[in-house]
Structures are given as structure tokens and as C-alpha cells.
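Dissemination and training. As part of the outreach component of the grant, students in the summer workshop were shown how a complex can be specified as a set of sequence lines and then modelled as a single object. The example used during the hands-on session is reproduced here so that future cohorts can follow it. Participants entered these lines:
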Amino acid sequence: MNEKHTSFKRQLTKSLLIWAITLWIFSTIAATVVFTEEYDELLDLNLETTAQLMLPIAQSESVNLNPSINTPKLFTPDLPWLDKDESFIFHLLDKNGSVLLISALYSEDLFKGLPLKEGLAKQGGYRLFTTHPNSKGSVLQIAIPLAERNQAIIDNLLSLGVSFLLLLPFMLYSIRYLTKKYGGVISSLSNAIGSRNGADLSPIKLDQNFSELVPTVSSVNALLERLRKSLSNERDFSTNVAHELRTPLAISLAQTQRLKASSNDANVIERSTEIEAGLKRLADLTEKLLQLSRSDAGIGLAAEKTEISRVIKLVVDGLSISNKTASRIKLIQPVSQFLSFIDPDALAIILSNLIDNALKHSVGGKEVLIDAAQAGVIKVINDCEAVSSKNLKMVCTRFQRGSGDVAGFGIGLSIVQSLCTQAGADLKITSPCNENGRGFEVTIELPSAEEHV
Amino acid sequence: MRILLIEDELKLAAAVAEHLRAQSHSVDCVDKIDTAISAQLTTDYQLILLDLQLPDGNGLTFLNRLRAKRIKTPVIIMTAKDKISERISGLNAGADDYVIKPFDLNELVARINTVSRRASDRIDFIYKKDLLKIDAIARKVELDGNTIRLTAKEWAIFDRLIVRSGAIVSRADLETTIYEFGQEIESNSIEAHISRIRNKLGKSSIVTHRGIGYSLEE
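and obtained this result:
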């Protein structure tokens, strides 16, 4: 699986942020356009009103002025309603278009070419207005620089930008907080589903029951329950079958051994020895098939921590009494406690198979070393001819027997591999494993309970 | 050794008891917890073989009851339950060992010997006195280098005396060791067995403590 995964929360945060910034830019542009139009309209109205009010005053000031004799008179009206900061420039024209009065800062070029028709105009960086001729046919033309209103628009844009920059961290924090809060439900659902395994098939509970997630959670819980029942039945079956199979085998073996022990007839002894060997082989096969069944039922992982040193000791002690080759087993015990979530029965099955395998394949009855000194690492080493790399790859294949002259069913190492995978343990098989180019070594590295948490 | 075998599979129990009797042990077989409790109350067993799945409950109930009363009789669990977790539960409940069915009868005997040796305070089970040498594990008796054959009951008496070496073993104790339930205890049978042992191993091999019991010569 090489699919690239992205974080839902990160993606949501990024998308929300991009959309918020884009929306802000568009809304700022729209607001600026509307503001500009409204502001222009307002200032134009102000310009018109000023011109209309100023016309009769200028008319009275221009009485007795003859444009053919007099030069235009400078007129500085002292009007209380006129804003001193506003730099109006105007002139008063008579009905013939001759200039009667001019304002301060007047420039002839400013009104050059401007028609005497009532209305607004824009030229030379100024906004201009021409009044309707009064009863004497005079017209007032007034101008105000556009730079002021442009500055107002820029100020407005700047205030919007600055306020946005001030609000940006808060917006970012809010988006992240809300994403974390509500996206956290997705994360907790994901974690809850992800943490379910063979050892934990308990129903999933959500802190917040969002209606969108309820069907998913219900379906997952139904599947978990079905899986739990199925695995439980499978495990119960192997436990019950173990009892039902072992008891008649125990009776048959015990009766056969008694028959053999109590008879003086060589023929009876020989035949009962054969039956005994067959029963022991059947018992071994039953044992392996039960282990296989448990492995297939997924017993590898436990819900509780297992202290592995006790399991190792119990398995080796069990073999030390029962196995005729027990004197060949050398155990280097763990020096410290090690806790893992491996199921104790799974670990016992793994160890008994590895030790059994090592005893069977160890050449000339040589020692089998079980080295558990390093915390969480168990090595089972035996001396034998080196296994070819081709055969080494196949030793864990089910029903693949390692060597033709050694008794076995070829399922021990496949059970070990399956249980190690379930428990998250690393399984490493090495051959040769010593400087003489001989030997077979199986190393199991168990995950620590702390790492798992 | 007097052994209580608690096993509901009668054919298995019969074969195990027969094998143990052939090893000079006395075996009482019961198939229920209730009967086992009664048997244990009336007899001082040296070892108990306990099945777990019994008709009237789990064998661990019996074991827990035993240990709660501070009875230290060694117990070997003999069961088809092979899980290590069940083995741990059994050992935690106070079992001394755990044998999984099907088992080799000789393996069971080896475990009985190991557990009983562990239960007694003796470290070595070889008794030597003058020309007499007894290997309790190998069940071998030699007098001046010659192997002496003892009957099952003679060996059972000797085994008890070796286990309690240094102490005086009462006649009742020896009767308990060699007679099972239902067997008629013959009067003076212990004296008769001891007399035969003395004939084989020498008069001083077993010391009589009049009115108290018997012990091995120190």
C-alpha cells in the first residue's frame, strides 16, 4: 500500500483558511466598489449643493462688473457652512461666457473646454460641476481635486486590510480550534476503529453522537460483535475439542502402557509398543492441529500484559520433566522483567514449537540453547548443517517439512510465524548462525507493552 | 506412598492406579469433589492427583479448599486443559505440578517422585548405612553390593521411612501408606512386613520404638 494519506483536520483547516481569505478578498473588493460609488455620489451631491448655494452670492458680488472693462474679480466667500479644508475652485460666467469672478488658486486651464451645460464632469484630476444658468443667465462652474476622494478610498481599503490582518490570527486560531473540536470526533472514531484487534473487539463509543456518524458506528459495532462471537466460538471450540480429543487418547495410551508393562508375552509387548508409538504420534498431531486452530482463531494478542519470563520458565520446566532430551536444553533466563501484550498461550505455543523443532534437528544430541537474557528477545539455537537459503525461505510454509529423516508434521514454524505476526513480534530465522558455517537460530523480538501503549 | 487420585474417567483412573500400585504406591480413586473431600478428611495422603473437569465442579475448588485449610499435601493437576494461562491458574491456586493429558505413565511417575522429593525436606534420596545403600529415586536397594528385591508393600514402608528420615513413623502412618480404601488391614501386618525387611537387610536396618513406631537406623 503506497497510497499517500493526508490529514482530514489539516485538509479541513487549509480549505477553510483558503476559502475565508478568498471570500474576504472578494468582499473587500465589492465593499470598495460600493463604497467608492456611494462616496462619489455623496461628494458630488455636496459639490452640486455648494455650487447651487454659492451661485446667488457670487451673482450679487458681480453686480456692476463689466467683463469687457474689468478683469475677473477675486472672490473669497466667507460662508459658515463652507468647509475651510475643502479646496473649492470656481469661477462665475455671465450669459456670454465671460468670467466675472474667480476663486483663489483659480486656473483658466482647469475649466478649459468645459461645456456650459448643467452637469458633472471629470478632467485634469478634478471633479467639476456646472450649474443651471440663473435668471440673469450666469453660470457657476466649480471644481474640487479628485486626490482627496482617492485618498479616502485608499484609507478605507487600508483600514479593511489592517483589520483583516489583525483578525487573521484570531480567525486562524478559531478555525483550528473548531476543526480540532469537531474533527476530533472523526479522529477518535478512527483511533477507536484502529485500536480494535483480536484482543479488543469491544463496541465503539463516541463522545458526541453526530447523526452522520451514527450509522457508521452502528455498522462497525455490529461487525465487531459478529467477529467477537465468531472468534470466541472458534476459541471455545478448540478448547472443548482439546478436552474431547485428549481424554480418549489419554485412556488409550495409559491402557496400552499398562498392557505392555503387565505382559510377559514378547508379541504382546511388541504390538503394544507399536500401538503406544502410534498413539503418541496421534497425540502429537492432535496437539499441533489444536495449536493451528488456535493460531487461526487469532489468539496472538492479549488484552492484558504478560510477564514473559514466567511463561518461558514454565514451558522449559514442562519440557525438562517430560522430554527425554531435556538434559540437552540450556536456558539463559531473562535478567529483568519484560511485559508484552502477547497472549501467554501464544508465547507458550511459539516456544514449545521452537524448542521441539530445535531438539529434533539438533545433530548428535547436541545442546539446544534458549537465550532469553536480552529483554524481550528470545533466541532458540541448535547445531545442524546450514539450511540453504532456498529452504530457509520455505521453512515457515505450512506442511513444509524441513528434513526428510526427522519426524514432524511441517506446521510448527508456520504456527510460530502466524502467532508472531498476530502479536506484532519480529521473527528472524538465520542459518548458518555460527562461525563454523553451521547451526539454525530463531530470534523472536517481542514488542514491549509500553511501546504498544 | 498413599496417593489420592481424583479422576472421573474411570478407565484412565484404573490404568493410572494400576501403574502406581505397580510402583509400590497405594492409590485411592474417587471421581467427585465431594468424595475427595471426605477421603482427604479421613486419610493423611502423601500426594494428590487432581483432574480439573469433574462432574460436580472444577478441581481447583478442591485445591483452594485444601490450601485454605493450610494442608500442604503435594498436588499434581492432571488435565486435558493445556493452556499456559490455565497452568498458571493451577499453580497459583497451590498445585505443585501440572500434567497434560495424554501423558506417559512413566512421566507421571517421574513427576510424582520430583514433587514428593521437593515436598519433603530431604535434598538427596540416597540412604547409606554400613553395607546398606538405598536409592529412593531409582528404587534400588543394595546390601554389601548385592541388589535386594523388595515387594511393593515392603518398598512402600521403606519409602515412607526414607521420606520421614530422622523421624519416628507411627504404625498407623505406615498402615495408611500401604493400605487403600476397602482393603482389610490385617493385624500385625506392619510387623510382618518389617520383619521380612529385616530378614533381607539386617536386623538393625529398621529400629522399633516400642509403643511409638519405627525409624531408619541413624
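The domain at 299-453 of chain A is CATH 3.30.565.10 (Heat Shock Protein 90). Students were then asked to discuss how this feature might be tested experimentally.
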